[in-house]
Sequence to fold (221 residues):
Amino acid sequence: MRAFLLTAAVLFLLVPTFGQNESAPMQEKEVNYKNWTYKNLRTGENAELRSMIAGKKAVMLVYYAPFCLNWRHDAPILQSLYDKYGPQGLEIIAIGLYDPAAAMRRNLDQLKITFPAVIESESRADRTSSQHYIYRRSVGDNRSWGTPWYVLFSPNEAEKTGDVLLKKANIVNGEIILEEVENYIRGKLAIKTSGQAVSAREKEIEPCDEGKKVPELRKPC
Fold:
């Protein structure tokens, strides 16, 4: 009986940790986000942000770590948005962090991600020195690893020259709230907002590890 009560107490304490879904609202913040040139994850060639967003109407930058379950929750939703709105001017760029490039590629392949991806850091030792860390801490994100983390903007709001691309941007310190973000995208693409977000079928998480579904309870990153 004592062993049962001890096990129950441990499970009770673990529920807040693993039950947090970490959805966060989109907020406009001063961020002084800089233009960058990173390696394309798939080709190894240099990729410059200003060039990647040229001609687009709306941009989502998502910082992710392959091992983060919160990222794995959002990834299929982002792919659905990309499939739906990419032809109309939406660009989504994944910025990989804190794992080797090979692990990043496996992760994107498992999640069936087709939007562009680049590498900022391949070392977990960079967690508190990366540009990602500097940005997110400046806007109040106090999570340990801080993924997923989003920057959303329209290219016509960006500076055309200089190191700083955006003085202000829309930030999400966690998982996106789908309806909020989709309405933002539709507004930037000048599409009448119906209030309907991606369908429940589209939101279903794809298998990402040996055919297993990502668990609904996930530890925040």
